[in-house]
UniProtKB/TrEMBL annotation:
Keyword Coiled coil: yes
Assigned protein family: Belongs to the Frigida family.
Protein name according to UniProt: FRIGIDA-like protein
A Pfam family reported for this protein in Swiss-Prot or TrEMBL: Frigida
Length: 177
Protein backbone atom coordinates (compact mmCIF):
# COMPACT_ATOMS: atom_id res chain seq x y z
CA UNK A 1 0.00 0.00 0.00
CA UNK A 2 2.91 2.40 0.65
CA UNK A 3 4.01 1.94 -2.94
CA UNK A 4 0.53 2.91 -4.19
CA UNK A 5 0.68 6.04 -2.04
CA UNK A 6 4.07 6.98 -3.50
CA UNK A 7 2.79 6.49 -7.05
CA UNK A 8 -0.29 8.57 -6.30
CA UNK A 9 1.83 11.40 -4.91
CA UNK A 10 4.15 11.28 -7.92
CA UNK A 11 1.19 11.47 -10.30
CA UNK A 12 -0.11 14.52 -8.46
CA UNK A 13 3.26 16.27 -8.91
CA UNK A 14 3.21 15.87 -12.69
CA UNK A 15 1.44 19.18 -13.37
CA UNK A 16 3.95 21.08 -11.23
CA UNK A 17 6.87 19.38 -12.96
CA UNK A 18 5.33 20.05 -16.37
CA UNK A 19 5.03 23.76 -15.55
CA UNK A 20 8.71 23.85 -14.57
CA UNK A 21 9.55 22.13 -17.84
CA UNK A 22 7.48 24.70 -19.76
CA UNK A 23 9.44 27.54 -18.15
CA UNK A 24 12.74 25.84 -18.96
CA UNK A 25 11.52 25.32 -22.52
CA UNK A 26 10.65 29.01 -22.85
CA UNK A 27 14.14 29.91 -21.63
CA UNK A 28 15.58 27.53 -24.19
CA UNK A 29 13.42 29.06 -26.91
CA UNK A 30 14.77 32.49 -26.03
CA UNK A 31 18.21 31.14 -26.92
CA UNK A 32 17.02 29.23 -29.98
CA UNK A 33 18.64 31.67 -32.36
CA UNK A 34 21.97 30.09 -31.41
CA UNK A 35 20.58 26.63 -32.19
CA UNK A 36 19.87 26.23 -35.88
CA UNK A 37 18.30 22.79 -35.47
CA UNK A 38 15.79 23.78 -32.76
CA UNK A 39 12.37 23.11 -34.26
CA UNK A 40 10.22 21.99 -31.33
CA UNK A 41 7.29 23.93 -29.99
CA UNK A 42 5.67 23.72 -26.57
CA UNK A 43 2.40 22.24 -27.78
CA UNK A 44 4.24 19.12 -29.04
CA UNK A 45 5.98 18.64 -25.69
CA UNK A 46 2.80 19.38 -23.75
CA UNK A 47 0.86 16.86 -25.82
CA UNK A 48 3.55 14.22 -25.31
CA UNK A 49 3.56 14.65 -21.52
CA UNK A 50 -0.24 14.73 -21.38
CA UNK A 51 -0.31 11.36 -23.18
CA UNK A 52 2.24 9.94 -20.75
CA UNK A 53 0.25 11.29 -17.80
CA UNK A 54 -2.97 9.73 -19.09
CA UNK A 55 -1.25 6.40 -19.66
CA UNK A 56 0.30 6.41 -16.18
CA UNK A 57 -2.99 7.38 -14.56
CA UNK A 58 -4.78 4.56 -16.36
CA UNK A 59 -2.14 2.03 -15.33
CA UNK A 60 -2.23 3.31 -11.77
CA UNK A 61 -6.02 2.85 -11.65
CA UNK A 62 -5.59 -0.70 -12.90
CA UNK A 63 -2.93 -1.34 -10.26
CA UNK A 64 -5.19 0.02 -7.52
CA UNK A 65 -8.05 -2.22 -8.68
CA UNK A 66 -5.78 -5.27 -8.67
CA UNK A 67 -4.52 -4.37 -5.21
CA UNK A 68 -8.07 -3.97 -3.91
CA UNK A 69 -9.19 -7.27 -5.41
CA UNK A 70 -6.17 -9.00 -3.88
CA UNK A 71 -6.79 -7.76 -0.32
CA UNK A 72 -9.67 -10.13 0.60
CA UNK A 73 -7.61 -13.18 -0.36
CA UNK A 74 -4.81 -12.06 1.95
CA UNK A 75 -7.07 -12.60 4.97
CA UNK A 76 -5.77 -16.18 5.03
CA UNK A 77 -3.21 -16.27 7.89
CA UNK A 78 -0.65 -18.29 5.96
CA UNK A 79 -0.77 -16.01 2.91
CA UNK A 80 -0.41 -12.90 5.07
CA UNK A 81 2.52 -14.50 6.87
CA UNK A 82 4.10 -15.43 3.55
CA UNK A 83 3.68 -11.86 2.33
CA UNK A 84 5.19 -10.50 5.53
CA UNK A 85 8.19 -12.80 5.13
CA UNK A 86 8.69 -11.78 1.51
CA UNK A 87 8.68 -8.16 2.63
CA UNK A 88 11.33 -8.93 5.24
CA UNK A 89 13.70 -10.72 2.85
CA UNK A 90 16.67 -8.90 4.36
CA UNK A 91 15.79 -10.05 7.85
CA UNK A 92 18.95 -11.36 9.50
CA UNK A 93 17.09 -14.21 11.20
CA UNK A 94 15.82 -15.59 7.92
CA UNK A 95 19.27 -15.28 6.33
CA UNK A 96 20.76 -17.07 9.34
CA UNK A 97 18.22 -19.89 9.01
CA UNK A 98 18.88 -20.25 5.29
CA UNK A 99 22.61 -20.27 5.96
CA UNK A 100 22.20 -23.06 8.54
CA UNK A 101 20.19 -25.10 6.08
CA UNK A 102 22.58 -24.56 3.18
CA UNK A 103 25.49 -25.64 5.42
CA UNK A 104 23.51 -28.64 6.75
CA UNK A 105 24.00 -27.55 10.39
CA UNK A 106 21.41 -29.79 12.05
CA UNK A 107 22.44 -28.99 15.64
CA UNK A 108 22.19 -25.25 15.06
CA UNK A 109 18.84 -25.74 13.34
CA UNK A 110 17.51 -27.64 16.37
CA UNK A 111 18.79 -24.92 18.72
CA UNK A 112 17.25 -22.23 16.50
CA UNK A 113 13.87 -23.98 16.78
CA UNK A 114 14.24 -24.24 20.57
CA UNK A 115 14.84 -20.49 20.82
CA UNK A 116 11.82 -19.53 18.72
CA UNK A 117 8.74 -18.42 20.62
CA UNK A 118 6.66 -17.27 17.63
CA UNK A 119 3.47 -18.91 16.53
CA UNK A 120 3.84 -22.23 14.81
CA UNK A 121 2.62 -20.88 11.46
CA UNK A 122 5.31 -18.17 11.38
CA UNK A 123 8.08 -20.66 12.10
CA UNK A 124 6.59 -23.14 9.63
CA UNK A 125 6.68 -20.66 6.76
CA UNK A 126 10.25 -19.61 7.58
CA UNK A 127 11.34 -23.23 7.83
CA UNK A 128 9.60 -24.24 4.59
CA UNK A 129 11.46 -21.49 2.74
CA UNK A 130 14.82 -22.18 4.38
CA UNK A 131 14.81 -25.95 3.80
CA UNK A 132 14.79 -25.26 0.06
CA UNK A 133 18.39 -24.08 0.46
CA UNK A 134 19.58 -27.37 1.98
CA UNK A 135 21.48 -29.66 -0.39
CA UNK A 136 19.73 -32.66 1.22
CA UNK A 137 16.76 -31.43 3.24
CA UNK A 138 15.69 -34.94 4.32
CA UNK A 139 19.12 -35.66 5.80
CA UNK A 140 19.18 -32.27 7.53
CA UNK A 141 15.77 -32.89 9.14
CA UNK A 142 16.68 -36.42 10.21
CA UNK A 143 20.02 -35.24 11.65
CA UNK A 144 18.24 -32.48 13.59
CA UNK A 145 15.68 -34.92 14.97
CA UNK A 146 18.41 -37.43 15.79
CA UNK A 147 19.22 -35.47 18.95
CA UNK A 148 15.62 -35.75 20.13
CA UNK A 149 15.42 -37.83 23.29
CA UNK A 150 12.53 -38.41 25.68
CA UNK A 151 14.75 -39.53 28.54
CA UNK A 152 17.94 -38.45 30.17
CA UNK A 153 19.17 -35.22 31.69
CA UNK A 154 18.29 -33.20 28.57
CA UNK A 155 14.63 -34.23 28.76
CA UNK A 156 13.59 -30.59 29.26
CA UNK A 157 10.30 -29.28 27.94
CA UNK A 158 8.71 -32.14 26.02
CA UNK A 159 6.13 -29.86 24.46
CA UNK A 160 8.81 -27.78 22.70
CA UNK A 161 10.67 -30.87 21.54
CA UNK A 162 7.49 -32.37 20.12
CA UNK A 163 6.68 -29.09 18.39
CA UNK A 164 10.16 -28.93 16.86
CA UNK A 165 9.93 -32.49 15.54
CA UNK A 166 6.52 -31.80 14.05
CA UNK A 167 7.70 -28.54 12.48
CA UNK A 168 10.68 -30.22 10.86
CA UNK A 169 8.69 -33.19 9.58
CA UNK A 170 5.84 -31.01 8.29
CA UNK A 171 8.31 -28.74 6.50
CA UNK A 172 9.94 -31.76 4.91
CA UNK A 173 6.57 -33.16 3.84
CA UNK A 174 5.61 -29.78 2.36
CA UNK A 175 8.75 -29.86 0.23
CA UNK A 176 8.03 -33.35 -1.02
CA UNK A 177 4.36 -32.66 -1.73
Amino acid sequence: MAMLQQISEALQEIDTKKELLRKAFEDLQNHSDTLSFFSLNWSEIDSHFSNIHSSLSSRFSTLQQREQSRLPSSQDPKSSISQELRNQENNATIRELRDMCSKMEAGKLWNWLNERKEKKTVIQVELNEALKFAPDSAKLVMDAIDGFSVTGPEFGDMKIKNRNCMLLLEALMAMEG
